[in-house]
Each structure stands twice: as structure tokens, then as C-alpha cells.
Amino acid sequence: MPKAHYKFAGVGKRKTAVARVFMNRGTGKFVVNERAFEEYFPTRALQAVVAESFDATGTVGQFDVKARVVGGGINGQANAVRHGIARALLLVDAAVHRPKLKSAGLLTRDARKKERKKYGQPGARKRFQYSKR
Q1: In whole angstroms, what separates CA 116 from the centre of its chain?
Q2: Any bridge partners for residue 10, and if so which?
Q3: What was the pLDDT predicted at 6?
Q4: Sheet strands side by side (includes 30-32)
Q5: Considering the entire predicted model, what is its pTM?
Q6: Whole-angstrom Cα distance, residue 89 to residue 99?
Q7: Most buried residue among 21, 58, 96, 122 by CB atoms closer than 10 A?
Q8: Which of 121, 107, 114 is nearest to 16 (CA)?
Q9: Half-sphere exposure (Cβ direction) of 67: Cα atoms closer than 13 Å
């Protein structure tokens, strides 16, 4: 359920990052963890990742967005916010936005995570050298 003053909400996840995204129709104001969007995601690449859902649906600058992100690193957080925005856009108009978001692959949660290290070995996949003699 979205917060009282936000009409659309979505939860996005990537690796260990979780983003709660709240949106209203507006002028394109974007706040992440109480900081400006450009300040929180400083590089153009990360900003492009976050804005990908809006680009795919052609809704750039039509929504005010507030996002709360916890966990993970900056790249995982950017992908989590993108996923949350895509889910929130479905609440706006699923009939129009769903085909565009689906074809761009923005509705699928990227389930890749770091594999755990196995006991008796130096890493998740790496093995100690085998010696026959």
C-alpha cells in the first residue's frame, strides 16, 4: 500500500539491495534517501540505468519520485530503483506500460547474487590444485 500522499508504489530488488519507490504525477522531481537524484547516483551511467523504465514507457518528467534504498552497493541500488519504478508504472496504466516494460526486460527481477564460499576451498568455484603424487 503506498504512503497516504503517494498514489503509486513499487518494490524493486537486485542482489542485496531493496528499493521502495513512491510516485505521484508531477514535474519529474526525484529524491533518493532524502537526497537529490543526481547527488545519490553521481555517474551518468547509473542515472541512465535508473531512468530506463521512464525511457521505455515515454513518461520522462511526468512523475515525482521518492525512493528509499537499503542494502547492497551503488550499482545494485540503481538497478533496484529501476525495478521499483517499473513495478510502480504498472499501477499507473498496466495495459499501456506492461508490453513496453516487458519487452525491455524491466519487470523481471535480476536474481543473480554472489555465490557463497564453500568450506575446504578458497572460493565459491575455485578449487585447490589437485596433485596426484
Answers
A1: 23
A2: 21
A3: 79
A4: 8-14, 17-25, 63-70, 30-32, 35-36
A5: 0.89
A6: 12
A7: 21
A8: 114
A9: 34
Structure-block grid coordinates of residue 59: 513518461
CB 84 within 8 A of CB 48: no
Q: Which CATH architecture does the domain made up of 8-103 adopt?
A: 2-Layer Sandwich (3.30)
pLDDT of 4 reads 64
Of 54, 79, 84, the C-alpha closest to 67 is 84
- Boundaries of every domain in the chain: 8-103
Mean pLDDT by 10 residues, the chain (133 residues): 77 96 93 95 95 93 95 95 95 93 94 93 93 88
pLDDT at 20: 96
DSSP output for 41-83: S-SHHHHHHHHHHHHHHT-TTSEEEEEEEESS-HHHHHHHHHH
pLDDT reported for residue 5: 76
Q: Which residues have a Cβ under 8 Å from the Cβ of 81 and sit 6 or more positions away?
A: 12, 19, 21, 32, 50, 67, 69
